[in-house]
Amino acid sequence: MLLIESLHTGDDAPSAQLILNFDARTKSRLRTQLASGEEVGMFLPRGTILRGGDRLQGADGRVVEVVSAPEALVEACCDSAFELARIAYHLGNRHVAVQVCDGALRIQQDHVLEHMLEGLGAKLTHIDAAFEPEAGAYAHGHHHSERGATEARIHVMGGSHG
To answer: Do you know which SUPFAM superfamilies this protein is assigned to (predicted)?
Structure first.
Protein backbone atom coordinates (compact mmCIF):
# COMPACT_ATOMS: atom_id res chain seq x y z
CA MET A 1 0.00 0.00 0.00
CA LEU A 2 1.29 3.46 -0.95
CA LEU A 3 1.47 5.85 2.02
CA ILE A 4 0.83 9.55 1.34
CA GLU A 5 1.42 12.06 4.15
CA SER A 6 2.17 15.36 2.41
CA LEU A 7 1.60 17.62 -0.55
CA HIS A 8 4.35 17.65 -3.18
CA THR A 9 5.90 21.10 -3.52
CA GLY A 10 8.37 20.51 -6.34
CA ASP A 11 8.06 20.56 -10.11
CA ASP A 12 8.38 16.79 -10.61
CA ALA A 13 5.92 15.25 -13.05
CA PRO A 14 3.37 12.90 -11.48
CA SER A 15 3.75 9.18 -12.12
CA ALA A 16 0.29 8.22 -10.85
CA GLN A 17 -3.22 9.65 -10.51
CA LEU A 18 -5.64 9.66 -7.61
CA ILE A 19 -9.19 10.28 -8.83
CA LEU A 20 -11.44 11.58 -6.04
CA ASN A 21 -14.82 13.27 -5.75
CA PHE A 22 -15.13 16.43 -3.66
CA ASP A 23 -16.20 14.69 -0.46
CA ALA A 24 -13.14 12.41 -0.60
CA ARG A 25 -10.90 15.43 -1.30
CA THR A 26 -12.04 16.98 2.02
CA LYS A 27 -10.89 14.01 4.11
CA SER A 28 -7.47 14.10 5.70
CA ARG A 29 -7.55 10.35 6.48
CA LEU A 30 -8.57 8.11 3.61
CA ARG A 31 -8.00 4.59 2.32
CA THR A 32 -8.53 4.49 -1.42
CA GLN A 33 -6.93 3.42 -4.71
CA LEU A 34 -4.85 5.04 -7.41
CA ALA A 35 -6.27 5.02 -10.94
CA SER A 36 -4.05 1.96 -11.51
CA GLY A 37 -5.85 0.08 -8.72
CA GLU A 38 -2.97 0.21 -6.22
CA GLU A 39 -4.15 0.79 -2.64
CA VAL A 40 -3.36 4.11 -0.97
CA GLY A 41 -3.43 5.22 2.64
CA MET A 42 -3.63 9.00 2.83
CA PHE A 43 -2.82 10.81 6.09
CA LEU A 44 -2.70 14.56 5.41
CA PRO A 45 -2.79 17.44 7.91
CA ARG A 46 -6.30 17.97 9.25
CA GLY A 47 -8.28 20.54 7.29
CA THR A 48 -6.48 19.93 3.99
CA ILE A 49 -8.78 20.30 0.98
CA LEU A 50 -7.38 18.79 -2.20
CA ARG A 51 -8.04 20.40 -5.58
CA GLY A 52 -7.77 18.89 -9.02
CA GLY A 53 -4.17 19.31 -10.15
CA ASP A 54 -2.68 19.18 -6.64
CA ARG A 55 0.27 16.86 -6.27
CA LEU A 56 0.91 14.51 -3.38
CA GLN A 57 4.17 12.99 -2.18
CA GLY A 58 4.22 9.22 -1.76
CA ALA A 59 6.41 7.74 0.98
CA ASP A 60 8.24 5.82 -1.78
CA GLY A 61 9.10 9.07 -3.60
CA ARG A 62 6.38 8.92 -6.23
CA VAL A 63 4.45 12.05 -7.11
CA VAL A 64 0.69 11.50 -7.36
CA GLU A 65 -1.63 13.92 -9.15
CA VAL A 66 -5.08 14.56 -7.71
CA VAL A 67 -7.83 14.41 -10.36
CA SER A 68 -11.31 15.76 -9.57
CA ALA A 69 -13.78 12.99 -10.40
CA PRO A 70 -16.98 13.85 -12.23
CA GLU A 71 -19.98 13.75 -9.91
CA ALA A 72 -23.71 14.43 -9.93
CA LEU A 73 -24.19 18.20 -9.75
CA VAL A 74 -26.95 20.73 -10.26
CA GLU A 75 -26.23 23.88 -12.24
CA ALA A 76 -28.50 26.80 -11.38
CA CYS A 77 -29.02 29.68 -13.83
CA CYS A 78 -31.20 32.76 -13.45
CA ASP A 79 -32.64 35.47 -15.68
CA SER A 80 -30.76 38.25 -13.89
CA ALA A 81 -27.66 38.89 -11.83
CA PHE A 82 -29.93 39.92 -8.96
CA GLU A 83 -31.65 36.52 -8.93
CA LEU A 84 -28.32 34.71 -9.15
CA ALA A 85 -26.97 36.76 -6.21
CA ARG A 86 -30.16 35.96 -4.28
CA ILE A 87 -29.75 32.20 -4.70
CA ALA A 88 -26.03 32.51 -3.83
CA TYR A 89 -27.06 34.25 -0.61
CA HIS A 90 -29.52 31.49 0.31
CA LEU A 91 -26.99 28.73 -0.43
CA GLY A 92 -24.32 30.53 1.58
CA ASN A 93 -26.76 30.99 4.46
CA ARG A 94 -27.02 27.18 4.53
CA HIS A 95 -23.21 26.69 4.40
CA VAL A 96 -23.48 24.80 1.12
CA ALA A 97 -20.32 24.25 -0.93
CA VAL A 98 -20.86 26.21 -4.19
CA GLN A 99 -18.87 26.37 -7.39
CA VAL A 100 -19.20 29.75 -9.11
CA CYS A 101 -19.31 29.50 -12.89
CA ASP A 102 -19.82 32.14 -15.59
CA GLY A 103 -23.51 33.00 -15.12
CA ALA A 104 -24.33 29.94 -12.99
CA LEU A 105 -23.78 28.26 -9.65
CA ARG A 106 -23.11 24.55 -9.16
CA ILE A 107 -23.90 22.44 -6.11
CA GLN A 108 -23.95 18.73 -5.38
CA GLN A 109 -27.35 17.24 -6.14
CA ASP A 110 -29.73 17.55 -3.20
CA HIS A 111 -33.50 17.42 -3.71
CA VAL A 112 -34.24 19.76 -0.78
CA LEU A 113 -31.87 22.44 -2.10
CA GLU A 114 -33.10 21.94 -5.66
CA HIS A 115 -36.68 22.55 -4.53
CA MET A 116 -35.58 25.74 -2.74
CA LEU A 117 -33.68 26.98 -5.82
CA GLU A 118 -36.64 26.34 -8.10
CA GLY A 119 -38.84 28.26 -5.64
CA LEU A 120 -36.41 31.18 -5.94
CA GLY A 121 -36.77 31.13 -9.75
CA ALA A 122 -33.61 29.27 -10.74
CA LYS A 123 -33.51 27.10 -13.83
CA LEU A 124 -31.79 23.84 -12.93
CA THR A 125 -29.77 21.44 -15.06
CA HIS A 126 -28.43 18.11 -13.81
CA ILE A 127 -24.87 17.50 -14.98
CA ASP A 128 -21.90 15.23 -14.31
CA ALA A 129 -18.75 17.30 -13.87
CA ALA A 130 -15.78 17.84 -11.58
CA PHE A 131 -16.82 19.85 -8.50
CA GLU A 132 -14.42 22.62 -7.43
CA PRO A 133 -16.36 24.82 -4.98
CA GLU A 134 -15.22 28.18 -3.69
CA ALA A 135 -13.10 28.35 -0.56
CA GLY A 136 -14.51 30.01 2.54
CA ALA A 137 -13.79 33.73 2.81
CA TYR A 138 -12.61 33.64 6.41
CA ALA A 139 -10.65 30.38 6.37
CA HIS A 140 -6.88 30.02 6.41
CA GLY A 141 -5.42 28.07 3.55
CA HIS A 142 -2.48 26.01 2.44
CA HIS A 143 -0.12 27.16 -0.26
CA HIS A 144 -0.02 25.67 -3.76
CA SER A 145 3.39 26.61 -5.05
CA GLU A 146 2.65 25.51 -8.60
CA ARG A 147 -0.26 27.94 -8.72
CA GLY A 148 1.41 30.71 -6.76
CA ALA A 149 -1.78 31.28 -4.79
CA THR A 150 -3.23 30.55 -1.39
CA GLU A 151 -6.53 28.74 -1.20
CA ALA A 152 -8.67 28.72 1.90
CA ARG A 153 -10.22 25.70 3.49
CA ILE A 154 -13.84 25.07 2.66
CA HIS A 155 -16.33 24.86 5.48
CA VAL A 156 -18.10 21.56 4.85
CA MET A 157 -21.20 20.76 6.85
CA GLY A 158 -22.30 17.17 7.30
CA GLY A 159 -25.88 15.93 7.34
CA SER A 160 -28.92 17.80 6.07
CA HIS A 161 -28.52 21.01 4.12
CA GLY A 162 -32.00 22.29 4.93
So the answer is: Urease metallochaperone UreE, C-terminal domain, Urease metallochaperone UreE, N-terminal domain
